[in-house]
Amino acid sequence: MNKITVYERADFEGLSREFTCDVPDLHELDFGNCIASLKVVGQPWIAYTQPKYEGDPHVFEEGEYAAVERPNSFSALRLVHHDLLDPQITLYEQPHLQGACKVVSEETNLAYGYFNDRVASHVVQRGVWLLYQHPNRGGWHCLAWPGERVDDYGAQLHFQARLSHLRPVI
């Protein structure tokens, strides 16, 4: 069973709630902006800083998080329903899936190769991906979903061809 248990204080203390399905607005359940620790069983969950799955996404894979990175900031929760096995994303050097391309199937720090800060578009074949602006999972980040096609990073993601790190959600 896939579930997330959220707690109002660090170290799994205080009030708690358990969810097994998406929650578009935690405020409606009197639990908005108060999560400080959590436990995930099964598939990953995404916590958003705004209701209706808006704002910054934060991915929590199976495990226990005694102190979340941004406590008291989550307003929505979404279960990742997608198949996460055998992830694959194709990166392109130019907008509209043009130019040199690179197929990626595992966590990759682009700073160590020729594609660092050169990606301008992508298409996700399989899996859910986290894309980071800076090396080592740093800077601004966003999610990329199966079947997603982003034709222009500058117009759609505000990355301005500055993708430096990516990893599949597992």
TrEMBL record:
A biological-process GO annotation: visual perception
Gene3D superfamilies associated with the record: Crystallins
PROSITE patterns: CRYSTALLIN_BETA_GAMMA
GO molecular function list: structural constituent of eye lens
Cell inner membrane in keyword set: no
Membrane-spanning residues: none
Keywords on record: Repeat
Superkingdom assignment: Eukaryota
Domain spans labelled Beta/gamma crystallin 'Greek key': 2-42, 43-81
Repeat recorded as keyword: yes
Similarity comment: family membership: Belongs to the beta/gamma-crystallin family.
Protein name (record): Beta/gamma crystallin 'Greek key' domain-containing protein
Record organism: Pavo cristatus
